[in-house]
Write a structure and sequence with these properties.
Blueprint lengths: L21 H6 L6 E5 L3 H12 L3 E5 L11 H14 L12 E3 L5 E5 L4 H4 L4 E2 L2 E3 L4 H5 L6 E7 L4 E8 L3 H13 L4 H6 L10 H5 L5
Parallel strand pairs: 1-2
Antiparallel strand pairs: 3-4, 4-8, 5-7, 6-7, 7-8
The protein binds flavin-adenine dinucleotide.
Length: 210
């Protein structure tokens, strides 16, 4: 198996000689006065956030209108290894695969964004919950905490979930399973979660549903 990773692509733009990669940034302890991150992926957000909290002026440039997820290498490597050893031909299943971004407040997402169902002509409900009053946010003294769940109206299935909340980085895996195995919003709402736990906040995310 050849899995030699990837390298940052050199950008043919004026000033490229002043650019460094994330590898160099992480190995260089000298802090700049300001920094521009090219590409609005997870790494730019996490490292840009780290710099911003150190008082550095940060700008992130992204061509697309949204954040880009990236978290599959271990999973894909496992499948390739098993295919080689077992002689099988399994392919990857990316359904329900979640992304977490380690910023403050933390971000987590799985499945469709709010805009995607419109493009796919799905009829969706998008319950948005301010989670500040809930157990997880109070426990961590959060100042920003909300969830946005995308529900396919005809089937009641969850098709996307998004959190701005530190505990969202754990809860997002529940929603990953929910999406992958077709659990509905009402099933999630009606489940009795151990209390007090962060998962118990899930009941409140569907409080508006009949
Ligand atoms: C700053 C940063 C933060 C990240 N954070 C996360 C995170 O929080 N969560 C997450 O899921 N992913 C994260 N990622 C992404 C994750 O690291 C990559 O997706 C993953 O490492 C890719 O795995 P890989 O095996 O394909 O390649 P790599 O991990 O790059 O491994 C490739 C290996 O092959 C070796 N190699 C290359 N050429 C040769 C050769 N000719 N002979 C022998 N060996 C060779 C390299 O030295 C390297 O060890 C992050 C990436 C970066 C850069």
């Amino acid at each position: 198996m050849i899995a030699s990773g990837s390298k940052p692509r050199p950008l043919p733009i004026p000033g490229a000689e002043h650019m460094i990669t994330s590898d160099e940034l992480l190995s260089d302890r000298a802090l700049p006065v300001s920094a521009t991150f090219i590409g609005g992926g997870v790494i730019s957000f996490e490292l840009g956030h780290l710099y911003a909290r150190a008082g550095i002026k940060v700008m992130i440039l992204e061509a697309l209108p949204q954040l880009l997820p990236a978290v599959v290498a271990t999973y894909e490597g496992d499948i390739v290894g098993r295919n080689i050893v077992e002689g099988s031909k399994h392919g990857p299943n990316y359904e329900g695969m979640a992304t977490a971004v380690y910023t403050v407040p933390a971000l987590a997402a799985v499945g469709l964004t709010e805009a995607a169902p419109t493009q796919k002509e799905l009829a969706v409900d998008v319950p948005v919950n301010d989670m500040l009053g809930r157990f997880s946010a109070k426990t961590d003294a959060e100042t920003v905490a909300w969830s946005k769940i995308i529900v396919d109206r005809p089937t009641d299935r969850i098709v996307g979930a998004h959190f701005v909340d530190r505990q969202g980085q754990e809860l997002i895996n529940v929603f990953g399973l929910t999406i992958k195995f077709g659990i509905t919003a009402h099933q999630l709402k009606d489940h009795v979660y151990a209390y007090p736990t962060f998962s118990a906040d899930i009941n409140h995310m569907f409080a508006h549903t009949a």
